[in-house]
Specification:
The chain is an all-beta fold. It has one domain. The protein is built from no helices and 9 strands. An 8-stranded antiparallel beta barrel has the order 1-2-3-4-9-8-7-6.
Length: 124
């Protein structure tokens, strides 16, 4: 079963990418400080943030000053993904996007108090 995914490039207080995976009628979301990897053996920090409404997946524009996340938001990549494993501390999924494709893994850091995960592309 495929679901939608989107990666927003977000120019707020610090430029970052927001990975969003559709699950249970919301977009599960992670802020990724560095560009998501297109090759294996590159790990990226991903901080889980609040879920977003599905409609937010198509959002591009400017969040006004004074609002949470103020700044420019652009769609950097989008497409579908197929979850292979979705557990509390580990998510494995196949992505088919315009920029990214292949198997990716998110692993929650055990000692993290800030919902920190590692995002990386897995060798097929």
């Amino acid at each position: 079963m495929s679901n939608s995914f989107v990666i927003h490039l977000h120019y707020s207080s610090k430029k970052h990418w927001d990975l969003r995976l559709e699950k249970n009628d919301v977009l599960k979301s992670w802020a990724v400080p560095k560009e998501p990897p297109s090759e294996s053996n590159i790990k990226r920090l991903a901080i889980q943030v609040e879920d977003h409404d599905l409609n937010y997946g198509s959002f591009e524009g400017v969040i006004p000053e004074g609002q949470y996340g103020a700044g420019l938001v652009e769609i950097w990549d989008e497409g579908t993904y197929t979850p292979e494993k979705w557990e509390t501390n580990k998510i494995v999924f196949m992505v088919s996007g315009k920029k990214l494709s292949g198997r990716y893994t998110l692993i929650k850091l055990k000692k993290s108090e800030k919902n920190e995960w590692l995002l990386f592309k897995t060798k097929s």
